[in-house]
Amino acid sequence: MALLQKITDPSDLESVNASIGLLDDKDSVAVAQAASEGIARLEAVRFRALAQLNRHREGAPGVTQEVAFALSLVDNHAGAMVAAAEALTTRLPRTLTLMDQGKVSGFGAMKVAAATAWLSDENARAADALLEDRLAGRNSGQIRKAANHAAITVDREGADKRAEHYREGRRLSVRQGETGVASIEVEDGPAEKVNAAYLRIDREAKKLKTGDETRTLDQLRADVALDLLLGGQGGTSERAEVFLYMDLFTYLGLNDDPAEMAGHGHLPAALARHIATGPNTVLRRIITDPLSGQVLDLGRDRYRPTAGVGEFVRVRDRECRRPGCGRPAQTCDLDHSVPWQFGGATNADDLIDLCRRDHRLKDEPGWIYRLASDGTLTVTTPTGQSYDSTPPPLHPPRTQTASTEEAPPF
User: Fold this and answer.
1) Which of 90, 319, 402, 406 could form a disulfide with 398 if both were Cys (CB 3.0 to 4.6 A apart)?
2) How far apart are CA 281 and CA 302, in angstroms?
């Protein structure tokens, strides 16, 4: 359409804006997509300009402040942009090319730069090559997970040291807000404990959300968390579980393939083994068959899972099945892909995990969800665009000497 071509010409934006009011839903989405691609290309230009400025000043600290002034940014964000610009123009050329093609946004590219910042130049280029076909069409959360996986894959020993360094830096911070409010945050806490704490808080908050309760779930989570910190019960005291996925060879120490924690992302093998075998673990380890990638054990003394349907579906799905949503399955609703009243069955072949937001979205007019026999969920939007979601494999079939170029499980 002519309007899509005009988007690339800044001098013609006035006529573009005047024409938007005439678009139907489908064309509105297409124009938004085209605009995003154009923005990504311009962001690539901006990164190159920032990198050139940094080179002229030989990396002087004042560059960050100048960028902050020029672009009306806070210092931290300006510093992150300068660091990303340097990385993209030297160590991550393929990611920068994807920006030139409109396939990766500047925000997504900064996720790649941050995830690979600790790598040597050689390993950063190797990670960049692994990611070349894995970033287009992904949201920032998926890009972060993919980039972390690639970084761990190309430098597994370094990843172990980096994880140890981060965990040693845990701290508690308080930020004073507007009148009468403040925030408290556990920064860089052990991922398994932070996720387990959130799951417990979330569960207790949902128990309190009765018909007479006027507080929102967000308010209830905050109230439960503060109650627990101040010595209250916060609800029923129960153990929360976090799912940690790792193949049998990794668990036994025969290889060092990354593991994955539901809702968090990939972990170096040594850290995963430490968490899975520690005496104070708060997670549920999921051991997989290295030859097939399928579940071997749910952290109990048996070979094949005999858990209930609901538990099995959550272990299988790991996260909300709506494409791009990373909410852990333990906090999601079990829903029929084919509505029960229209013949849907209450079994693992028809049940999927959807977070509460996406569960409600599924029932909105015009949204169509279809589950294929291979487990692929196809979501069709009211404008007719379709997006696929397949239960993420725990890992590809592998051997003890599996290639480091395996695709990440997301």
Assistant:
1) 402
2) 20
Task: Transcribe 335-401 into DSSP letters.
Answer: EESS-GGGT--SSTTTEEEE-HHHHHHHTSTT-EEEE-TTS-EEEE-TTS-EEEE-PPPSS----TT
Show Cβ contacts of residue 108 under 8 Å, excluding neighbours closer than 6 positions: 135, 138, 139, 140, 143
196, 284, 198, 300: which is closest to 246 by C-alpha? 284
One-letter amino acid of 91 = R
At 361 the pLDDT is: 84
Beta bridge partners of 89: none
* Residue owning tokens 């297409």: 30
pTM over 0.70: no
* Contact call for residues 150 and 333 (beta carbons, < 8 A): no
Any idea which residue has 């487990």 for tokens? 375
Q: What is the pLDDT of residues 19-65, one digit of tens each?
A: 787 888 888 898 899 999 999 999 999 999 999 999 998 888 789 98
CB distance 265 to 115 below 8 Å: no
Distance CA 275, CA 319 (A): 21
Structure confidence at residue 116 as a pLDDT band (50, 70, 90): very high
How far is 129 from 377, CA to CA, in rounded Å? 29
Say how many residues make up the chain: 410
Highest-scoring range by mean pLDDT, 86-95, 325-334, 351-360 = 86-95
Instruction: Tell me the two tokens of residue 41.
Output: 């290309």
